[in-house]
Amino acid sequence: MTIVAQGVTEQLVEHAIALPEERIPAEAREAAKRLFLDFLAVAVGGRWLAESSSVILQGTKLLAGSGSGPSTIIGEEGGYTAQYAALANGALVHSMDFDDTYQAAYLHPGAPVFATLLALAEAEGKGGPEFLTAAVVGYDVACRIGRVPGPNIIQRGFHPTGIVGIFGATAAGARLLGLSQAQAANALGINISQAAGTQQFLVNGAWTKRLHVGLAAHNAIYALTFAGLGFLGSASPLEGRAGL
Question: Which CA distances in Å does 214 have to 114, 218, 241?
């Protein structure tokens, strides 16, 4: 019998998709509930207090055009397609930089994970237990990946939440949607081409940092949609020679 060693990406995907719900501790689920409430509250604050929010909302509405959908932009009336709701909510929640932080990875994991899950759960009619399981998975994957570069990712000029957060959001979304391990791996493989965000915003206090998070959630949904239809993503996007 030949045993083929799994790569890092494959191991994380298997963990994300196959983790039994009963193995998630009750305290982890309770933490996910509190973190989601925090996400909602901080998004409301960003919606009304950040100077960039009116532009974010106007731009999202222009991009969405005349289309409507089942997903909510926090603090707004009307529904949007999932990717646009995720775009706006991810940007709003990060607009004041008060969203939760995992210091070991210099990462704001909740913003891209919950922006993705809220939009998809509304679009697909997913319930609370599924939502919380997917959130725990998303946090776990994002934080595990983020610990590898640690502060080096910032020292090299990148924004961890844009670069790393997209993978946690994608893993969370794959779990919520019930994708197979192969589909989830392809979604991560698509998103190695969409992971983005640099620290250049520090030069003039640009609003791009906020958009990094919205785009992570938006692009996670794009990748999940294509992967669910059988699109082939890059192999080994995390550990490959040209991977993360």
Answer: 11, 6, 28
pLDDT digits (tens, 9 = 90+) for 147-204: 999 999 999 999 999 999 999 999 999 999 999 999 999 999 999 999 999 999 999 9
Entry pTM: 0.96
CB neighbours of 214 closer than 8 A, spacing ≥ 6? 56, 86, 87, 88, 89, 90, 91, 92, 94, 115
- pLDDT tens per residue across span 58-108: 999 999 998 789 999 999 988 999 999 999 999 999 999 999 999 999 999
Burial 76-106 (b: 16+ CB within 10 A, else e): beebbbbbbbbbbbbbbbbbbeebbebeebb
Tokens standing for residue 4: 């083929």
d(CA 216, CA 200): 17
For residue 215, CA distances in Å to 50, 78, 89, 195, 229 come to 18, 21, 10, 9, 21
Q: What is the 3 state secondary structure string of the chain?
A: CCCCCCCHHHHHHHHHHHCCHHHCCHHHHHHHHHHHHHHHHHHHHHHHHCCCHHHHHHHHHHHHCCCCCCEECCCCCCEECHHHHHHHHHHHHCCCCCCCCEHHHCECCHHHHHHHHHHHHHHHCCCHHHHHHHHHHHHHHHHHHHHCCCCHHHHCCECHHHHCHHHHHHHHHHHHHCCCHHHHHHHHHHHCCCCCCEHHHHHCCCCHHHHHHHHHHHHHHHHHHHHHCCCCCCCCCCCCCCCC
